[in-house]
Write a structure and sequence with these properties.
Length: 67
């Protein structure tokens, strides 16, 4: 269950299955952030010409949430 410690819950809005019935896609509504590093998503870095770079800003301070 996401959010037991942080209280940053996700609500499942829709569930999709692919044509071979071996993969699921869940569309969720995120309350605050999903990443334990303080970002809305764990996918906050992108590969650029000089390596990975942060492309998002933190939405909460993880030090305050995970004491």
């Amino acid at each position: 269950m996401k959010g037991e410690v942080s209280r940053h819950f996700q609500t499942v809005e829709e569930i999709y299955v692919n044509c071979e019935n071996d993969s699921l896609l869940l569309r969720v509504r995120q309350r605050v952030g999903a990443c334990h590093m303080g970002y809305a998503s764990c996918f906050y870095r992108r590969l650029g010409s000089w390596g990975f770079e942060e492309v998002e800003s933190r939405v909460f301070d993880p030090e305050e949430v995970y004491r």
